[in-house]
Design brief:
CATH topology: Rossmann fold
Shape: globular
Number of domains: 1
Oligomer: single chain
Structural class: alpha/beta
Number of strands: 10
CATH class: Alpha Beta
Order of helices and strands: HEEEHEEHEHHHEHEHEEHH
Helix content: 25-40%
Strand order of the largest sheet: 6-7-8-3-9-10
Bound molecules: adenosine-5'-triphosphate
CATH architecture: 3-Layer(aba) Sandwich
CATH superfamily: P-loop containing nucleotide triphosphate hydrolases
Strand content: 15-25%
Length: 261
């Protein structure tokens, strides 16, 4: 027999088939200043979507709106099937988020961090224990379970933070410059984890200033002064601008920017 669910339970079920992120003419004004100017795009399940732009282009503001952290001024957007205007709390429950600034507690051990975030995401103790073992095995960090996160190399902290942000199996993970300060080899290892998550169906939304990372994305959008000026696969963008590298694509577009900081 079909049981009726109260609206909140029904609304919090898994995302429907179709795009995991939709965004239509999404806009954010701060007074007279338009930080995000009518951006529109869709991101599919399991897609790796690169969100590029010079400093001050509006990436963080757009990402904060999509994460349910900042109310938009105009337009429409859904994330994991939830509306950014009406259901920001449900969005927060169904996404993962990782940035350089918001990450793990340095003065807690690896195991304590996993337990803490598992609790924040509402997972039960037994599930957290199971996931902790699997996560440490996957990262080759079993011996570091009782090590303070502060004493791990930066590349390990980033991989751990990424894995922790996926503990509750969100439909989409937002990564805000997740690999700052590490070398290309370590970045490449981090990307192995990204590919693994995407292959399992997680949608990846990532901002980066590294053009090697832009090359790894399925599609890349480039923001200039609050607008999306280009959006295509890395190969498509290079073709469109008649250049050989993403660096040149980026320079070509960012050169005309007014709002760069
Ligand atoms: N709360 C705010 N009030 C006023 N202006 C803001 C506010 N937040 C951001 N801005 C402005 O909006 C513009 C876009 O900022 P945003 O942080 O989104 O850019 P960004 O592309 O993420 O840059 P970065 O790469 O440096 O993080 C900037 O000019 C910034 O000064």
């Amino acid at each position: 027999m079909n049981k009726l669910h109260p609206p909140d339970v029904a609304a919090s079920r898994a995302a429907p088939a179709g795009p995991v992120i939709t965004c239509e003419l999404l806009t954010k004004r701060f007074g007279d200043f338009v930080a995000v100017n009518a951006i529109s795009f869709e991101v599919a399940a399991g897609e790796i979507f690169g969100f590029l732009g010079a400093n001050g282009a509006g990436k963080t503001t757009a990402m904060r709106m999509l994460c349910g952290l900042l109310g938009p001024t105009e337009g429409a957007a859904t994330v994991a099937g939830f509306d950014v205007f009406r259901q920001p709390e449900l969005i927060k429950q169904h996404i993962g988020y990782m940035s350089q600034k918001f990450s793990l507690y340095e003065d807690l051990t690896v195991g304590e961090n996993i337990r803490f975030y598992g609790g924040v995401y509402g997972l039960k103790g037994a599930v957290i224990r199971e996931k902790t073992t699997a996560l440490l095995q996957r990262l080759g960090l079993e011996a570091e379970r009782n090590t303070l996160v502060g004493s791990l190399p930066l590349g390990w902290k980033q991989k751990l933070a990424f894995s922790v942000a996926l503990l509750h199996e969100p439909a989409v993970i937002f990564l805000d410059e997740p690999t700052g300060g590490v070398d290309p080899i370590t970045r490449r290892q981090f990307w192995d984890l990204i590919y693994e998550a995407a292959a399992a169906g997680t949608t990846i939304f990532i901002t980066t200033h590294y053009m090697d990372e832009a090359e790894y994305c399925d599609r890349v959008s480039i923001m200039v002064d609050g607008k999306i000026e280009a959006l295509a696969s890395p190969a498509g963008l290079k073709r469109q601008f008649g250049v050989a590298t993403m660096d040149e694509v980026f320079l070509h577009l960012a050169r005309g920017a007014k709002n760069t900081e």
